[in-house]
Amino acid sequence: xxxxxxxxxxxxxxxxxxxxSSSSSGSNKQVLEVALWDENxxxxxxxxxxxxxxxxxxxxxxxxxxPYANYWTKLKTSIGGSSGPDVFWMNGPNFxxxxxxxxxxxxxxxxxxxxxxxxxxxxxxxxxxxSMEDELYAAPYFTDSVGLYYxxxxxxxxxxxxxxxxxxxxDIETEGEKLVNKDEGVFGYAAHTTVNQQGYYNLIHQxxxxxxxxxxxxxxxxxxxxxxxxxxxKNLIDKGISPSTQNQxxxxxKQLFMSNKLAMIPLVSVNTPELHEALGDKLGVAxxxxxxxxxxIVHGIGWAMNDKVEDEELAWDLIKSLTSEQANKDIAESxxxxxxxxxxxxxxxxxxxxxxxxxxxxxxxxxxxxxxxxERTTExxxxxxxxxxxxxxxxxxxxxxxxxxxxxxxxxxxxxxxx
Length: 419
Fold this sequence. Notes:
One of its GO terms (biological process) is maltose transport. GO terms for molecular function: maltose binding. Keywords: Signal, Transport. By secondary structure, this protein is of the alpha/beta class. Helix 2 crosses helix 14, helix 2 runs antiparallel to helix 15 and helix 9 crosses helix 10. It is built from 19 helices and twelve strands. The radius of gyration is 25 Å and the shape is globular. Strands 1, 2, 3, 6, 10, 11 and 12 form a seven-stranded mixed beta sheet that branches. The N terminus is likely disordered.
């Protein structure tokens, strides 16, 4: 009897342990961590993950969305602690720092062994942005350029013709003044002094200057062209055509625009769905008005891989799914921004039919200027932001502020090139 009881107990114990083992294996799937900052792409990211899971059903992909203001601090801390996400968004200002510090993996060896991934399929400017010595470190996801959004209703109310490709800086001033309605708290134009890509970077290039030289050895902030661009901004603010720098800090200009309190605003293409949701058919877009020449800053986001990822082949499969032709079609149809894969650009044009999105594709090809970067971009941008805002807030010499930016930036660039 004792032997029988012992036998039954052993069988039951074996069944119990098998059940526990089965449950444990079900909950202990291999996990890939993904990080990015914009939840507006959640549906398209989830669709790419579903496609990845069809090939890898035993892998759990966890996605974390962190607001941009905290994203880089959190990312740097986690990666510096030898953990962090396996796959994550990378942008231009931070690329050189992460690649030269060995925080992200060189994807080129994986690409060379993979017949499915073709760098030539993507917009060259974004491939170049995330390459070092022709080797890719972040797979292109989407691109963006800057256009002039405008509120058709405010133009109609003021009896002003809509902006078009013939507009220049002079038109911003003359027509923008007509669009100001002080009684209703309406401004004509957003002369950005608190943001760079959608603001003064474009104007510097339109004036014929540059933010950083092509060889990344010299600042262009102290050039006559840069000073001309900032004099133009100051004039628009002084005339009350644009909100002041203090106003821009207190209330984001985009919020004013979506509240029908701003007639024109330069913004990147990723804003289209949000602006259209707020304004509907009142929303229009035109090319940025020209200075001496046409120019629009072009940027884009790439998917990078943690250099300490445990299974790089698996992480690479996930990146391929996130940047596949289907993923590009999904992001194009969502209207979020211009997909990085060149063959899917036309799909994006129809994502918001009432808005002429061709403006942004044309901007990339005609006068598109690459977002300025170097190894220590964020350091000289800190100087840039501090000096510009201080000059506009305190009413001190903007030319002297630009000279100080150039001085600090040139010192950083010299150190970069001597390392």
